[in-house]
């Protein structure tokens, strides 16, 4: 399972940090950290929108829209998947950046 997950979210680990980092490199890593946090928040926002839409579709009581409930359940499942992928990618990049300091 872990090997399959690594194939889904790939990183290049062929870079080795042999030199002392300079200010430009430090600032680039700080920008990358901020972009990583912004990406996590984007995944979280998308996950919450899917959850909200899914719960809204599932809670429809009208008999005309009974077939729409399936779409609601699918949206809730995708919401959980989006959240998991976002957290995994955030943690992976954070660990990856930690090796360069």
Explain this structure.
- The chain is an all-alpha fold and 101 residues long.
- It has one domain (22-98).
- Helices cover 73% and strands 0% of the residues.
- It is built from three helices and no strands.
- The protein has helices at 2-8, 23-58, 68-98.
- Helix 2 runs antiparallel to helix 3.
- Keywords: Membrane, Transmembrane, Transmembrane helix.
- It is a multi-pass membrane protein.
What are the key terms here?
101 residues; mainly alpha; 3 helices
Integer-rounded radius of gyration? 19 Å
Which range does the strand content fall in? under 5%
Uncertain runs with pLDDT below 50, 5 residues or more?
none
Please count the helical segments: 3
Structural class: mainly alpha
The strand count comes to 0
Q: Could you spell the SSE succession in H and E letters?
A: HHH
Instruction: Identify the overall geometry.
Output: rod-shaped
Helicity range: over 70%
Query: How many discrete domains?
Result: 1
Distance between the termini: 30 Å
Average predicted confidence as pLDDT = 83
For the sheet with most strands, the description reads: none
Membrane topology: Multi-pass membrane protein
Pfam family, one: DUF202
Organism: Psychroflexus lacisalsi
InterPro entries: DUF202
């Amino acid at each position: 399972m872990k090997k399959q997950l690594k194939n889904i979210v790939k990183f290049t680990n062929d870079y080795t940090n042999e030199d002392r980092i300079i200010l430009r490199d430090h600032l680039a890593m700080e920008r990358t950290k901020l972009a990583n946090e912004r990406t996590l928040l984007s995944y979280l926002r998308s996950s919450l929108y899917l959850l909200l839409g899914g719960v809204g579709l599932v809670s429809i009581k009208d008999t005309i829209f009974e077939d729409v409930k399936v779409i609601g359940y699918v949206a809730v499942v995708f919401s959980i998947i989006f959240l998991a992928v976002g957290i995994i990618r955030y943690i992976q990049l954070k660990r990856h950046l930690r090796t360069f300091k």
